[in-house]
């Protein structure tokens, strides 16, 4: 598969690797032969991913941290690069999503979305750029944005993702003289836990679309079987985390003389919630 020669021997960091898209990207990079450093707040699923990566002969580590701790995130990136002598791939994926209008959003949630989706991503980019320059490895920043970035009606969340797109393009321009490429990846709906902080009715509505009855507390993760059922029932409306990992591997496989600034991965049909 494409990933094999593409990432073999590379050193990669993935934030938000305990769930969904980040976890799929980390596992795909690991299966492709990269040494992967998984970052997130929930250790157990990351440890399971490390075991899966090791079972394919790969190498991976887990770091439990909150990406809003800028010093801890920057220190981790620096340490990984120092120990490996290189940093090839930094995937800034950790994110928090809420649905609803701007005026209805609570300030605390707005702050969390801005802190995680924008500021932590910026810290991750800066630390990775510094490490790539210091070790001379060159590398690739993959910033996970969203198609919500293209829709002004997608609340504070969409605003944070629009910021990700602008930061990514600005950095791409500032880094044209470096061997560092920057890609902003905009997924449409993907079957993950991203909806866990949506209003409970919205989460129940998504489960109902898949024919599954579900009542969860706010913030609670959706069972994998519900996510799988939703994706299977709405296969042309909801993408799989692996679909996004495929796109990341494609981007990483392009030659250094190119930069893919933005890549949009949508399911074939629009999901009306
Ligand atoms: N699913 C979609 O439909 C969709 C569409 C477009 C874009 N996206 C974007 O894709 C990215 C991944 O989301 P997902 O869909 O895979 O949702 P998810 O399953 O909820 O995963 C989000 C990840 O971010 C981590 N995270 C959140 N806050 C964090 C913090 N303060 N510190 C460290 N890690 C944190 C979570 O880990 P812990 O909670 O364990 O820390 C988790 O690993 C996000 O940037 C999201 O905005 C998703």
Mean pLDDT: 94
The coarse overall form would be: globular
Q: H/E series, N to C? A: HEHEHEHEHEHEHHHE
CATH architecture level-2 label of the largest domain: 3-Layer(aba) Sandwich
The main β sheet shows up as: 7 strands, parallel
Helix share, percent: 40-55%
Quick synopsis:
The protein is of the alpha/beta class. It contains 9 helices and 7 strands.
Descriptive account of the structure:
It is a single chain. This protein has helices at residues 3-7, 20-31, 43-55, 70-84, 107-135, 155-174, 200-209, 224-233, 241-252, and strands at 11-15, 35-40, 59-64, 89-92, 139-144, 180-187, 262-265. With 273 residues, it is an alpha/beta fold. It folds into 2 domains: 3-190 and 240-256, Rossmann fold (3-Layer(aba) Sandwich), CATH 3.40.50; 192-238, no CATH class. The chain has a 7-stranded parallel β-sheet, with helices on both faces. Helix 6 links the parallel strand 5 and strand 6 (180-187). The longest helix is centred in the middle third of the chain and has 29 residues, at 107-135. The radius of gyration is 18 Å and the shape is globular. The two termini are 35 Å apart.
Notable traits:
alpha/beta, Rossmann fold, 2 domains, seven-stranded parallel β-sheet, globular, binds NADP nicotinamide-adenine-dinucleotide phosphate
Helix-strand blueprint:
Blueprint: H1 3-7, E1 11-15, H2 20-31, E2 35-40, H3 43-55, E3 59-64, H4 70-84, E4 89-92, H5 107-135, E5 139-144, H6 155-174, E6 180-187, H7 200-209, H8 224-233, H9 241-252, E7 262-265
Parallel strand pairs: 1-2, 1-4, 2-3, 4-5, 5-6, 6-7
Bound molecules: NADP nicotinamide-adenine-dinucleotide phosphate.
